[in-house]
Amino acid sequence: MSENRPDPLTDTLLGVKGQGAHTLRVVTDADGTTGLEPSLAPAIDPGPAYWADLGPLNDTDTDLIALSPDVSPSEIEALAVTLWPNAGWVKPGCLGLGGNAYLRGPYSLDKATKATLKLPHYVSYTYLLDIPADLTGPIPQHLLTAHPLVRAYADNQPAGWHWEVLTGLYAITRRLAGAMRVAQSQTVVKPDPDSAVNLTVYAPAWIEAADGAALVRTTCPGAELLDAPPTPARPVGASRTGQRRHERVAREAIEADLGADEVRRLAAEARAFDEMAAAHPVPPAGYSLTWTNADGTHLSFHAEPTTDVPPALRWEPWADGPLAIYDISWLPRTLPTPGHSLSRGQRIERLAAAETIETLATGLVHLIGGAILDEDGFIIDAIVHNDA
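The structure corresponding to this sequence follows.
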């Protein structure tokens, strides 16, 4: 297992190698110029002594996650802290997830054990889940979804905190390209890391629909916006001098009709209302954009204001206040058949969508600051695609 290598997969997350979380925030210099700088979150990594190998795995009757040798246990901790505020190392070999849930390990896996458990060849160690079972019985057929974790527990579905922990471990396993084994069904679940395509940008700044559309057009040359916001019409006809003359004539007509005192009173009320409105601004209205790229890929960009801070950003000073959420999503032309792998054409479309989404999210963060989160709520690095 790697202990000291920097990994771009999780080195932006909480607690990795004691360096904290790296996101971007907008800063203003003394001369008024603005820029971006990294923002650090507290680190809780206690060091390698807490994840020393506990020996070969002998328990085959417990749910577990299995990971490849190039994934450090510190990365598991980093992702766990992102999901659960009280997660952290309780003692060597025991990672608390909150409440009464723990991951115990790491235990090494030899070839014979991997063959017995039907684990993939690329994993080398495992953590066992220690949590009181909260099982509700078989899932009715009409509620059985295509999600592999749901199907793995079809005979006895976990509920409550038990299920929350399992879905969180599924997300961690997907991020780290590992595997989960469900003991009750002896099912091995191997989440596809590439299936997490959509990204969300949380930012301290708001951009209007017209600016969002401009960003899409700049980032995606040839994009055909299906619901582009209207471009504000420029005044035509009268000159600026002519407009001022018409305004003066209208004001004089109003004063002649109402009287100068009444006009001044109404103007004072209008100024008071403007001041009150400025002191209590109305949150901006959300909007959505959808478009088709030149390669036929369909995507969407949805913006809305929020005051909810996701767990991954709870230590970010810029997130302490109103935020804007920008969801950038792939709209596949055809949905995959449940239980079947994507076709070659679907994989190509997904790859093209992922590159566009990453580029658009990166451009947005460099424009207004903030952080990029994946579908599971983990912070990711801004990715820049270089065309060689």
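Residues 344-368 form the longest helix (25 residues).
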